[in-house]
Amino acid sequence: MTEFMRVQEKIQLARELGESQFREFKSALQGPPDAKVRRPVVDVCRDIAEALVGFANAEGGELLVGVEDDGSITGVRHSEADIQRMLAAPADRVMPETPLPTPVRLRAEFDGKMVLYFSVDKGTEHVHQTTDGKCLQRNDLETRPISTGAINLERQERASREYDRQYVDGATIGDLDTSLIERARDKVAPGHSVEAFLGFMKLMDFSTRGVQLRRAALLLFAQDVTLWHPRCEVRIFRVQGNEVRTGRDYNVSKSVQVAGALFQLISEAWDQLRPYLVETKFGPEGTFEEKILYPEDACLEALTNAIAHRDYSNEGRPIEIYVFDNRIEVKSPGGLLSNVTIGELRQLKGVHQSRNAYLARVLRELGYMREMGEGMRRIFHLMRVHDLVEPELQADPSSFTITLHHRSVFSPEAQRWVTAFDKFNLTREEARVVLLGQNNSRISPQQIIDALDIVDTDQLRSVVEQLQTKGILINVLTKVQVNNLVKREKLSSRRLVRKFAIRPPFECERFLSQFLMEVIREAGGSVVTVGSVKRAVGRLPIENPYSNPGTRGAFGALLALGLIDDQGNPIGRLRSLTLSGELVAPEPVKSKSQSRDIATAGADPEESVVEDFESGRDSETPRKVYVGNLPFSATSKQLEEVARQYGKVLNVSVPLDLYTGNSRGYGFVEYARESDATAAKNGMRKHMWGEHRISTAWARARK
């Protein structure tokens, strides 16, 4: 029994956390559930030795004997002599030349049943083996055989590998931020003391000199981490361009330094990095357009991995993140460990070696990291899911860099083609099918299956029906024509017949505008019902696909397009069109050169803005003010409360996003007096809305 956590508490906490990279349960029984008997003691001893060797060759860990995989306790029912053999297994069953590092062996009565508790630190002196010559390593939830050469540590790596495990003379619990530890403890071991939590995470121990803290505890929770590490920080540089220049051409427009204990460093650095992942521009149609440059989860994973696995023994360098116009580079001090290669990482084999075993374990238990070795695979997967090129990996003896590009795997022409269907709420799968129909290409079901990696016929049917419901996918062949083609071409399957086509985007726009115009006329500003949609559809020309939109019906088409909610309330674009009271269905255009213009026609008309803050040019509407840089959660009511500070307000509007129904990030305020409008235009730009500084300009009337 330790001074800071009883063995019963260790066992209970381990059961609650479950098996992981750092924890394994072993039964001491065998046989059917209602007739279990004792396992041979030699088998249990072998399992104990193999599990602890696997932990020592990985990141360290703990083993509970007498506990089933689901955490239920069945106990050790063996004789006292057999139990003593089990407790001796970490020494007797491990090769004497590769002894385990400081193994812990405890026994306890738990719910009236005997449980044996073992734990071991990560080994740095030896590659550990069992007495029968097995070399094993813990990997996620498995203990696997591995060659001794693959985990043989090079001497020059020891300083970095041992850095976080070292005890720091003179450091006390008073040097730690108790509030941070309590927050961490409440995630992992609620109800336990701070000391018990630190002990369970092996961040603290007792000796004859009293409490001893490992360096990992100070890196994670220090009140002032700079006293223990001068570069426990992340620096973010925004570079205007694709390369850093020097001298007069120096092009770093913004530099942010985030420092602190690691437990809070991840979230604080993420808050500073996150705004660079999205680009928001005022588009040509008078709307704010938001473009996702990088998948958030991939960037957060790259940041977390850099913080968890950097070489902290290199105390002179921080983690550096460069945000260029075309990419993000995350550079961490310390090259790859000798038994991990760039090639293995690129092949996504899940290989891993934690330089900082104690840091990685705590961050894993706190949920900042997934199972060990999954981080790189997850980053590659997320970039692929977002149709972006693969991450670029670089390593040299002093650093490791991962680069995320916001370059699509598709050509600019393909991207423009898909963008023409932006108003149709396409899923990723639907967008890929639309791509198949570029340049008037006919599409076969097999092409869709291959493009989407479909294994289920129902999934194919769902994607096809959804695109037909949205009026995008056309059946260009009848069943009779398909059958004739199969016979004439001697095809092995009907799936090979190119029977689908994608309707040109300008036609899709025209038909959708006709449909929405009738829906708005029928429903007005009220809830859209199945009946009102049926009456609206009845007035559509026969060639309009929404007059017969497949199996889901016209009401289902509005749902699929993201224009109404399940109760029929207009949202997003339909709500905006309803409020504006204006919708013009574009005329059909046959010229290809005109198709891009048609793709944007029929959008909700809005007032354009001239942001001439200092030009002194007279405004055409001197009582109406454009208010920009609002958060996307802003509402008209909230903007009105701010606007009233400057005078009598006649009208306030915050345009809504076509698809989400949220604010677009700007609004308009009309005042009763020109002097009030002038005061608002000058005064509101000094106003902070959360973290957003408001911008203002005169609103120009529509021509």
From TrEMBL:
InterPro entries: Nucleotide-bd_a/b_plait_sf (IPR012677), RBD_domain_sf (IPR035979), RecG_C_sf (IPR038475), RRM_dom (IPR000504), Schlafen_AlbA_2_dom (IPR007421), Schlafen_AlbA_2_dom_sf (IPR038461). PROSITE patterns: RRM. It comes from the Bacteria. Residues 604-613 have a biased composition (Acidic residues). Residues 623-701 form the RRM domain. Residues 588-620 are annotated as: Disordered. It holds the Pfam family RRM_1. SUPFAM superfamilies: RNA-binding domain, RBD. This is RRM domain-containing protein.
